[in-house]
Amino acid sequence: METVRYGIIGIGNMGHAHALSLLSEIKGAELVAVCDTRTERLEWAEANLPESVQRYATPTELFESKSIDAVLISTPHYDHPTLAIEAFQYGYHVLIEKPAGVYTKAVKEMNDVAAQTDLKFGIMYNQRTNPLYQKLRDLIQTGELGEIRRTNWIITNWYRSQSYYNSGGWRATWAGEGGGVLLNQDPHQLDLWQWTIGMMPKRVRAFCHIGKYRNIEVEDDVTAYVEYENGATGLFITTTGEAPGTNRFEITGDNGKIVVEDDTLSFWRLRTPEPQFNAEFTGGFGSPECWKCEIPVESGGGQQHKGILRNFTNAILHNEPLLAPGEEGIHGLTLSNAMYLSSWTDNWVDLPLNEDLYYELLMEKVNSSTFQIENAVSKTLDVTGTH
Amino acid sequence: METVRYGIIGIGNMGHAHALSLLSEIKGAELVAVCDTRTERLEWAEANLPESVQRYATPTELFESKSIDAVLISTPHYDHPTLAIEAFQYGYHVLIEKPAGVYTKAVKEMNDVAAQTDLKFGIMYNQRTNPLYQKLRDLIQTGELGEIRRTNWIITNWYRSQSYYNSGGWRATWAGEGGGVLLNQDPHQLDLWQWTIGMMPKRVRAFCHIGKYRNIEVEDDVTAYVEYENGATGLFITTTGEAPGTNRFEITGDNGKIVVEDDTLSFWRLRTPEPQFNAEFTGGFGSPECWKCEIPVESGGGQQHKGILRNFTNAILHNEPLLAPGEEGIHGLTLSNAMYLSSWTDNWVDLPLNEDLYYELLMEKVNSSTFQIENAVSKTLDVTGTH
């Protein structure tokens, strides 16, 4: 194979941006088809994409066309697992948008099907291309920070006005998105939270506030506390209601602390690891000598979406290792599912998650919903720089 | 009255520093007596204080001497309320060290007695003299920040080694101190947390970890989540086990956010208050214009302990308003009591606190304790710059 022939399912906000990238910026990739169930999006494709790009009104037509090698799934979240499973069954490589799905029960089925194929399976975790988080992961995985003791991510700069929510009736509903800030805005941070430190919590206690700042039926403000197997604790604090908000990720370990904020990474490194200092020190008051280290990090935020498209294409063509294997999408989703479940039951949630209970309670919310956003207008928004 | 004649009860770590201040640095104050039940501390007083300073082995002898106008109580925490009540009954003005006590039930009794006198009652909340927190309070109380939405204090730079805990057998025990990091290290932050924002939570959910980093029987690591009546949420994260730790207090309001960290205060101020922006904006993605404002704050940390001693002295002599009225000591203590209770019951704690239940559970811990610190050596530590 010399080029990967891509079909995109869903050419709304994100999908149409991927289409333009695949057309011109990804070596070894060829956009041969797009698919959308909305007439106006196919009209957009007709007007804006080369004639050679086939247009389909249903995924089945696209799958049956046999004109593609790989499919990029950029539909509403609920459909990611079902479409991915179908695509694998047709023998296509699959790249899904984040989140992996809405509930882990479906995502696990998708992962099981993927595991039975030799096809490539990726997820659009474009923030994994960000040199800041790559360096953070490096410092942790190579032991520079030592054993992790605390993680604390304040990610409250996802400001969204009511106007944003009114731009689509499916937005911020249980039936449409299956959640709010955790499902739409936070999937990258939920992934990076576990990817950089290399561990998942063992239990979660979360506090989700529904429609606190906006007229929506899902959460727009969350505080989640977690405990890890090794005794470490963690916090994840997020909202779409605050401006300007904060994006600050602090991680403490035996050898000091790291803070990622304002596009910089700072490492306060102890000269002696804290446990050793504590064992040897006899002076009453006193603490380990600490050096504030400037860690070099490549600027610019990395290749982002295009980096994932390049990596996925190279994985198919040259067996390049995937930066964001699709199977790993379940981790971030498990975290958000656990946060909802903890909030709904007003109690601890242990991991592995009770995925059947979660699905049952989610479906209750979907089925009992009477919520309608007033004056909802369906719009494809310009998402430049927002995801 | 031209000078206030002070007696100090307890001349250990803090009390002996106050003695030296009163001797030479507080206009209108005169140190006339000290009291300590420990012979070695009276010997220290004999060797280091002027002969004119009387020495007493019991508070009763000091009270009966009738040689003083005011008493400064700098004993172990449990004794603050009982000694204060006794001092009021003798007709003395009372300044207590922090915390106000160990459990609010006793502190409320102290407050009730104080309310029945015309005597001055103060608490050594020296951090209230810090211009940073005074400015923060000013910006909030004058409405510059708008309605509060979130408070988040990461106060993890209270590093204490095992050597510190071994310096006194009473340290970090239920019977000796009645708690750990919340009772010994955090009383200032717990006070400032509510004093600067001007409100107390309505409920608390906290996670206290006992002896996580040190061989102690009380907590050395706490994460507490709170909810306020106005819908705001808050976090308080603290430990003695981390180095170098963090001291970062972030407060979000309708008009932006303030961060106090590294001895600076930064105000990200929205040009238009967020609720107004949200009501008027129709553009989908978009957020209020934000100005990062450099707020002038006097440097140097304020007069600290000496500022409280001066203010208390002037309150007696010239009726100067108290910066830290003793009655307000109950607020910070209520917060820590509620955190323990939430953790012990693994559940929410509503405020006002069930103070009888708290007292009962605390006494169970005191009475069932079999804990002994190995190699405990009683030492008076040099506390310069640590409280």
From TrEMBL, chains A, B:
Gene3D superfamilies according to UniProt: Dihydrodipicolinate Reductase, domain 2, NAD(P)-binding Rossmann-like Domain
Name of the protein this chain belongs to: Gfo/Idh/MocA family oxidoreductase
Domain GFO/IDH/MocA-like oxidoreductase residue range list: 133-258
InterPro entries: Gfo/Idh/MocA-like_OxRdtase_N, Gfo/Idh/MocA_Oxidoreductase, GFO_IDH_MocA-like_dom, NAD(P)-bd_dom_sf
All copies of domain Gfo/Idh/MocA-like oxidoreductase N-terminal, residue ranges: 4-121
GO molecular function terms attached to this record: nucleotide binding
